[in-house]
Design a protein that fits this description.
This protein is of the alpha/beta class and 426 residues long. The protein contains 15 helices and 18 strands. It folds into three domains: 42 residues, no CATH class; 306 residues, Ribonuclease Z/Hydroxyacylglutathione hydrolase-like (Metallo-beta-lactamase, Chain A, 4-Layer Sandwich), CATH 3.60.15.10; 37 residues, no CATH class. α2 packs across α3 and α12 crosses α13. The longest helix is centred in the N-terminal third of the chain and has 17 residues. Bound molecules: zinc ion (ZN) (2 copies).
Length: 426
């Protein structure tokens, strides 16, 4: 019977139905079971939604006033790959605040999948300036403007041992490098969202308060990663302690600051064995990078064993069918507490009572949401314009333009006069 149900042709289903009918008629025990099953199915009829969802669908659930929701928007490595963007975690609080921690390559696409107005994605905390932690800054910054953000992007990040290794240097020079992009948009779109509010702070600060607004306190701690400059963060709100390491080898500042944290995200790099076997690294490099520049899975376990968070989140490795078992085995050598081996779009709902872990399912056809404030128009007076040479190449299609303008004016009750690159059309 099972074979017919799963694999049989349409005719086979008829056979099953008739067998069931016989059973119903002659076997009271089976008949009762089938009836119970039928009534259960009635309650799950198409007019009722399931009351408990195992999946998070963005934009469909309130955040409770006492709740923190964290969504992984990048959990991978510097190497681009479809399955995992590089480092990025979004923290949403029941008071309405949202914070982005790191914006690694590929992560802006993940953020877009959450269908949050860009006005709310205006606070970014950078742990350090590796591309797998800031590589999508331009996509959030400029993409956010095009996506209707109508307020400055606020960015916090550490200084460096030299000025050129600091967050301000990175941001100001990225703005310089995008001079053409900015110039090209002046007068064509409203550019208020291009403004940056840069907060660079001392990377050596231990427990240094870098943000204190709306009952949310964010502190920075030195991290040990490659060269001086990287930091880790904690966020305190409503008696909940969130911690994000960005990249670091195990260090005393983190262990001191995150003891008993409610939610602790720490890097757990690919194990040295994986670096040697799958990435074909020289053994010496795998040991150095895997245990000194980064934190290996068994070192991650030791950090979590010493700090005992309510939930330990490992990120920064390719989390696949063949690597996850090894990572977990190595972590479990040193840590036996609650653990998430994160992948992109893992979601955690955190309250004092409970931590719920699910996966988000997003629409691949998501559009930017409207601004939460009235959309400001561009100011044509700001346009840089073209040289006479380029204008001389512009083709004139007056009859087509007249029709476009007439249709739009009729639909929207406006009165714009047709024009092309040469000026008004008679
Ligand atoms: Zn790094
Ligand atoms: Zn990294």
């Amino acid at each position: 019977m099972e074979t017919l149900l799963n694999n049989g042709p349409p005719g086979g289903r008829k056979l099953v139905s008739s067998v069931m009918a016989c059973l119903l008629a002659f076997t009271p025990f089976v008949a009762t079971g089938v009836a119970a099953q039928a009534s259960e199915q009635m309650e799950l009829s198409p007019v009722k939604a399931l009351s408990v969802r195992d999946t998070y669908y963005p934009g469909t659930e309130d955040i409770r006033p006492d709740e923190m929701r964290v969504i992984a928007c990048g959990t991978g490595m510097p190497n681009a790959r479809p399955k995992q963007a590089a480092a990025c975690f979004l923290v949403e609080l029941g008071n309405g605040d949202k914070f982005i921690f790191d914006i690694g390559s590929g992560s802006a696409e993940r953020l877009s999948g959450l269908a949050i107005p860009y006005d709310y994605l205006d606070k970014l905390f950078i742990g350090h300036l590796h591309s797998d932690h800031v590589g999508d800054f331009d996509a959030l910054w400029i993409g956010g403007v095009i996506g209707n953000r109508q307020r400055p992007l606020r960015v916090w990040g550490p200084s460096g041992a030299e000025e050129k290794y600091g967050t301000r240097w990175f941001l100001e020079n990225i703005a310089e490098a995008y001079a053409w992009d900015y110039g090209s948009r002046q007068g064509n779109v409203n550019t208020v969202g291009f403004e940056m509010e840069i907060h660079e702070f001392d990377y050596k600060g231990v427990g240094q308060v870098v943000f204190d607004e709306n009952d949310v306190v964010i502190k920075s701690y030195p991290a040990i990663h490659a060269i001086d400059g990287p930091v880790s963060y904690t966020l305190e709100w409503n008696d909940l302690l969130f911690a994000f390491s960005s990249d670091t080898a195990p260090n005393k500042w983190w262990i001191e600051a995150t003891k008993g944290a409610d939610f602790s995200i720490h890097e757990s790099f690919s194990s040295p064995t994986t670096l040697i076997e799958k990435q074909k690294w020289p053994v010496a490099d795998a040991l150095n990078v895997g245990t000194q520049v980064h934190t290996s899975p068994s070192q991650f376990g030791k950090v979590m064993d010493e700090t005992r968070p309510r939930m330990a989140v490992a990120y920064h490795f390719f989390n696949d069918f063949d690597t996850a078992p090894l990572v977990e085995r190595e972590i479990r050598k040193t840590y036996d507490g609650p653990l998430s081996l994160s992948v992109d779009y893992m979601v955690w709902n955190i309250t004092k009572e409970e931590i719920r872990t699910r996966m988000a399912v997003i629409s691949h056809e998501v559009w930017p949401l409207p601004s939460v404030t009235e959309k400001l128009p561009a100011d044509p007076a700001d346009r840089i314009g073209f040289s006479d040479f380029i204008i001389s190449g512009a083709e004139k299609f007056p009859e087509v333009l007249r029709e476009i303008y007439a249709d739009i004016n009729e639909t929207y009750g406006t009165d714009f006069k047709p024009e092309d690159h040469h000026g008004p059309i008679d």
